[in-house]
Amino acid sequence: MLDRKLRRDLLRMKGQAAAIALVVACAVAAYVGSTTTYRALRSSNEVYYDRFAFADVFAELRRAPRSLASRIAEIPGVGTVETRIVADGPMDIPGFAEPATAHVVSIPPGGPRLNRLVLLSGRMPEPGAGEALAGDTLLKLHHLRLGDAVTVALEGTRHTLRLVGTATSPEFIFQIRPGDLLPDDAHFAVFWLPESDLAAATRLDGAFNNVALRLAPGARETDVLARLDRLLEPYGCLGAYGRDRHVSHRFISDEIRQLQGVAVFMPAVFLGVAAFLLNVAFSRLVGTQREQIAAIKALGYGNAAVGLHFLQLAGVIVLLGTLVGTLAGAWFGSAMTRMYALFYHLPLFRYELDPSAVASAVLLSLLTAFAGVAGAVRRAVRLPPAEAMRPPAPPRYHATLLERLGLGRLLGPVGRMILRSLGRRPVRALLTAVGVAAAMAVLVLGAFLDDSITWMMDLQFRRAQLEDATVTFVEPRDPAVVHELHAVPGVTAVEPFRAVPAVLRAGHRTYRIGILGLPSPAALHRISDREGNLVALPAGGLMLTDKLADLLHARPGDDLDVDILEGTRPRKTVRLAAVVPDLIGLSAYMELDSLNRLAGHGPALSGAFLSVDPAAEQALHRRLKDAPLVAGVLLQRVAVASFEATNAQYLLFFTGILVLFAAVIAVGVVYNSARVTLAERERELASLRVLGFTRGEVSAVLLGELAVLVVLALPLGCLFGLGFSALIARNLSSDLFRVPLIVESSTFAFAALVVLGASLLTALAVRRRIDRLDLVEVLKTKE
Amino acid sequence: MSLWRALNGRNDDDDRPAPGTPVFVAHGLTKVYRMGEVEVHALRGMDLELLAGEFVVLLGPSGSGKSTLLNILGGLDTPSGGTVRYREHDLVGADERRLTKYRREHVGFVFQFYNLIPSLTARENIALVTEIARRPMTPEEALALVDLADRMDHFPSQLSGGQQQRVAIARAVAKRPDVLLCDEPTGALDITSGKVVLGVLARVNRELGTTTAVITHNAAIAAMADRVVTIADGRISKVVRNDHKASPEDLAW
Ligand SMILES: Nc1ncnc2c1ncn2[C@@H]1O[C@H](COP(=O)(O)OP(=O)(O)OP(=O)(O)O)[C@@H](O)[C@H]1O
Ligand SMILES: [Mg+2]
Q: Is the distance from CB of B186 to CB of B216 less than 8 angstroms?
């Protein structure tokens, strides 16, 4: 019999049940989707590292004889050692006019033992045949086939590479050109060449310029790094580093950490809302079913049976939600996996619906649901059969605080009804407003990323850095080169820069970095702080980003020791003149002449920022990239466009998902609240209709109450949205990248509009029920 | 409002029919409720006239169709067949909007369960109606009429059942309705409160000239009516005219 009641109750509250189930579904979808993706990402990463022998320690140097390898291997704690040649150069891709960079890595005879290659198609290249492997996405992105060739300029000489296969390796899960914000596979690609071929192209026969090694079990990385540094320093090593400073590793591990945060945060919000909705719905249900519950108990059903009955009802609703949520979560997870495939090269990364994640989602939802209905069920269980047969005490109302303050005089009876009804259940009213606010906050969150990134891009590329192109030289050049650049057709302004590799030391803390020397005041490449204010370089001394100053525990006014890592390698002392709080990474700046004096060998330039006539951009690029001694040309416009394209895709996906989630929360909360209020006040509304109130006027009583809550929720939602965004901004920020907390007013407006729209639609649905209210039926019965 | 009246061409308010002229005229009234396969005939062809200013008591066994009739007369429900008019208002063909307007302008209802708005005080419950009526009393006047002027600012939960019913009557009469329809107004009350409530109904009928119909199961109440209509099985079985109306205090309960 109770089973039949269960089915009938479920059918009667189907609208509410569906709304609650949908919110649960969102929670489960968010949890299952992000958790399974998180686990898949983490485990495929681990397995990949393990099976393809990702190295523990890396070092780049100028040139060292191959014989040095055995001395590296002798360092205590060093396991496998691999010496390699790595070089970068501009490349020409057939049918692609834009500037692109090749990152070329040597394949030792017999294949790499560390950072081993995953051959995805074709075959390994033969030495001496001009053959190469290309990264996995190059062919697809540029519509090339195996057998096609690209041209790469190394050390000023052009080499034609015939592509005989595609591959990837654990050190290139994340491929990014130094200085870029996001990966850009169209303009940056990795190639692998037989060692002998690459040695010839880079004039490094019998030598290497890159080391990767694995630590022996139990070895201490810091000890190995220190010894390695000492050994490699004479060979132009800028400092060995562990995985923690390996760019690819950093990005992927940050991503995994962020995803884990999302996997906790989003479901928590949804489950909180679901618990609240269940609480309200079940409190109401037990309230209306007092007599029924009493009758059931009088028939001899025990308290346990009654309690179980309501828990089952909640359980059924939640299970329906988890079912939908699991399906949505599987879709969400696989979509997210595809999303990640845009950024990461993880050959073992497959989406799998992890049953244990589903199980824990179901368990979590059930627990939350039971917590939500616990109060109501306890009341049902405790209800003595005799008392339940008596009607509940009539609801007590009193004038609200606002009315006592004199506001009441401004309101008619309907206004007072609304105010007092809210005042009678302030906690529920508040939680409803909080629920709607949560929906709005999720929307703000969805749009905030776009705001922040747009703001950052605008700051970086339209307000601070005004150059159209950047030219870098193979080695420092005489300042007279500025005149040559000026003479290139299309160039309207030239701003030289100098980059000097150096080790900054403050006490025992050190950091290796290229110090960027810029003319002061700069006209093109200008530096800005986090708020977007332009920052002038100090006349003398260093300026560091705050993150780097923190790392060194240095404050403005401190003296830093600087080891210059080129030329005569002098050690100097420089005052830290200023610290700039910025958004992107770790940088050190100096005024150009001061830097030249510091580096100690006359004025020289590493490259120049150019202002270019847009019409001449392509011609300029073609001309400069083939010029001798030019290492690379970067077109700002192309870089920004490709960043924005990738980013737009990413944001569209996440904003879309979040809008959907938010709409479900908003509709769920408003609909439930409306239905419960309608059920509680059916009689009042019917009375008003009998008194001659029109349908519209009666609806105003109920919907007015909702409107008050929704309007209250709007400022609250802005606040929550800001809070959520701050949380996510912190979660997304790393040493490499800091997300500013920028929320445009249009975002708040958008969020408010969506919430208002969802509320309005819900209100209209409820309005139809008010219109269908059967007056005679409602008034016939005793309350 | 005056523009509306001008457009409408006539003014309902001031031409109250002379006492004794028919205001409600029903012919062959039927009401069938369909519940799946089963048809319930609540009214089976009822002919009835109610006269202006009269006090009618409707008697009859449970399920005979009294409430159904009253609800149709009050514009809460529509019949399945037959005709029914309130003066020039056709209550059969009217749509929901016209019925609402009809209730708003002409009808006062009193139910067994007072149906007050619990979140509003006695005065505010009445203000609810006076604010949308054309020619209302003040809430204070209406409460004085039911002898509850001193309970004006009490919420329903702070009033006894009889007092709540008097507030409900005050709310029903505050707009000076043309007809007052009461469905078992004393059904939930004890003798003393019941008599007070009936006294109020008689007074309203007498002093305001409101046409009043009262459903009751208590045959004793019939003594205070001008006419007593008995209903059985969806038809009128008997109409009795009282030559001597008893006053409510004298009713033998
Ligand atoms: N909504 C409805 N659906 C189906 N049948 C109904 C409905 N309302 C009333 N009835 C039926 O119509 C008949 C007349 O009902 P009505 O309420 O008019 O009786 P009544 O004379 O007022 O009875 P009581 O004195 O018990 O109030 C009854 O048989 C009842 O079961
Ligand atoms: Mg009845």
A: yes
Query: Could you tell me the residue ranges of all domains in chain B?
Result: 52-76+95-250
Which residue among B67, B96, B128 places its CB closest to the CB of A413?
B128
Residue A162, pLDDT score: 96
pLDDT of residue A392: 64
Q: CA A686, CA A395: separation in Å to the nearest integer?
A: 17
pLDDT at A647 over 50: yes
Taking CB atoms and an 8 Å cut-off, how many pairs form between chains A and B? 88
CB atoms B76 and A776 under 8 Å = yes
Q: Which residues contact B193 (CB under 8 A, 6 or more apart)?
A: B160, B161, B162, B163, B165, B186
Kindly report the number of other CB atoms within 10 A of residue A79's CB atom: 16
Q: Is the pTM of this model over 0.90?
A: no
Expressed in angstroms, the distance from the first to the final Cα of chain A is 26
C-beta atoms of A398 and B129 within 8 A: no
Q: Is B60 near ligand 1, meaning CB less than 6 Å away? A: yes
Residue A557: its pLDDT value, please? 92
By CA distance, what is A773's nearest residue in B? Answer: B76
- Domain B52-76+95-250 = CATH 3.40.50.300: yes
The pair of structure tokens assigned to A192 is: 């692998």
CB contact under 8 A, A690 and B109: yes
pLDDT for position A413: 83
In this predicted complex, what is the ipTM? 0.86
Nearest chain B residue to A680 by CA distance is: B118
Smallest Cα distance from A288 to chain B, Å: 17
Strand, helix or coil at A129?
Answer: coil
Please work out whether the CB of residue B61 comes within 6 Å of at least one atom of ligand 1.
Answer: no
Nearest CA in chain A to B161: A394
Percentage above 90 pLDDT, chain A: 33
Query: Both ends of chain B: CA-CA distance in Å?
Result: 46
pLDDT at B4 over 70: no
Q: Express each pLDDT in B132-183 by its tens digit.
A: 888 899 999 999 888 898 999 999 889 988 899 899 999 998 988 999 999 9
B114 interfaces chain A, CB cutoff of 8 Å: no
Where are chain A's structural domains? Answer: 1-51+247-392, 52-246, 401-460+640-783, 462-639
User: Does B101 touch chain A if contact means CB atoms closer than 8 Å?
Assistant: yes
